[in-house]
Amino acid sequence: MKKNIIIEVPRHGASVQLILRAGVSSGQAVIVVDDDVEIRLGEPAPAAAPHPATPAATNTGKAPTPKARAHDLDAIFKRLTKLKPTKRAAALNCIKTMFPVTAPISDDEAHQILEALRRRGNLTIGAHDKLQLRNA
Q1: Which residues, including other chains, have CB under 8 Å from residue 30's CB and lie 6 or more apart?
Q2: How many domains does the chain have?
Q3: pLDDT single digits (tens) 74-115
Q4: Residue 103 sits in which domain range?
Q5: Which of 60, 3, 53 is nearest to 27 (CA)?
Q6: In this structure, what is the dihedral angle of CA atoms 72, 112, 101, 54, given to the nearest 10 degrees?
Q7: CA dist 94 to 9, 46, 91, Å?
Q8: Which one-letter DSSP state was computed for residue 70?
Q9: What is the reported pTM?
Q10: What is the DSSP string of 2-43?
């Protein structure tokens, strides 16, 4: 099965990690980019090392920590505005899915990220855990 993936590349760049599924010995990826984008091939990170954190394609394969940098929170907020969760629990699930399966975040870390977005004024949480996102 082939997949087409579009990744927004911010000014500071983005990282993509290609990983073979379990039981597969080789694979192939075709990458097509605009003339303004440069491709650099790097060595894979050691399997035991945590995946590097990068904003959004996020999923960009990056795993921001609960104390995510401001641009990470911006990327998370941007994705939340696209997903449009209406309840706290839905927003927490959305945040958790933004992190790779190989480096998942805990419920506590997802709560910390949601709270950081609330403190920044990106969203409000009202009665009955109703979530309201600020217009991006």
Answers
A1: none
A2: 1
A3: 889 999 999 999 999 999 999 988 887 778 888 899 999 999
A4: 1-136
A5: 3
A6: 10
A7: 21, 28, 5
A8: H
A9: 0.49
A10: ---------TT-------PPTT-----------TT------P
